[in-house]
Amino acid sequence: MKKVLQIFLKVILVITTLIYPCFMVMMSATGWMYNFNSGNYPAIFRNFSIGMYIGGGLLCFGTVLLLFGKKAKFWKLNIISMLSACIGCVTCMTILSKFTAYADQNFSGIGENMKPVSEMYYDRIFPVIVPAFLLAILSVWQIFDTRDERIQKQFELENAEAPKILND
Asked: Pick from 126, 141, 163, 168: which is nearest to 3 by CA?
């Protein structure tokens, strides 16, 4: 049952990572960079887009590391994965906060009901918390899952028979 739950959470992690950090965050950052390069947006959007690229990239990188960190000999990848998730999520949320503050001051609403631009981007980028949370949980889970195997291997190495020096 434990393995089934872990596989299910990994599938959800991969799907949410593809949707939010890989698509929503990266496409938002690409749009900001495109409009900055076209001269339509001020220079602050270059910083916003670079921050989003970094945050989304760290979350995607952490997911890939988690998938490779299942074996006991690669358990340190889970620590890097967890750190990547935390840093990536904090980066995305910081940029989102700065962007929404900027958008509320400088942009009007869009669409027929004049939905604020900041609300639209908030709805697109805030769910990045879900894959970051799953990534952190699964990383810790895999660290503790491989712990017994690592301890057993260390015990075997410490209690192994010493090689013979002289031929008898």
From this structure: 141
DSSP E strands in the chain: the ranges are none
Contact predicate 78/66, CB 8 Å = yes
Position 39 in a domain: yes
82 lies in some domain: yes
For residue 54, the enclosing domain spans 2-158
Burial of 125 (0-12, 13-18, 19+ CB in 10 A): buried
Beta bridge partners, 110, equal: 115
Q: Is 51 inside any structural domain?
A: yes
- Structural domain tally of the chain? 1
One digit per residue, pLDDT tens: the chain, 168 residues? Answer: 888 999 999 999 999 999 999 999 999 999 999 999 999 999 999 999 999 999 999 999 999 999 988 776 788 889 999 999 999 999 999 999 999 999 989 887 776 678 888 898 999 999 999 999 999 999 999 888 887 777 777 777 777 777 777 765
Classify burial at 16, counting beta carbons within 10 Å of its beta carbon; exposed 0-12, middle 13-18, buried 19 or more: buried
Q: Does any domain span residue 53?
A: yes
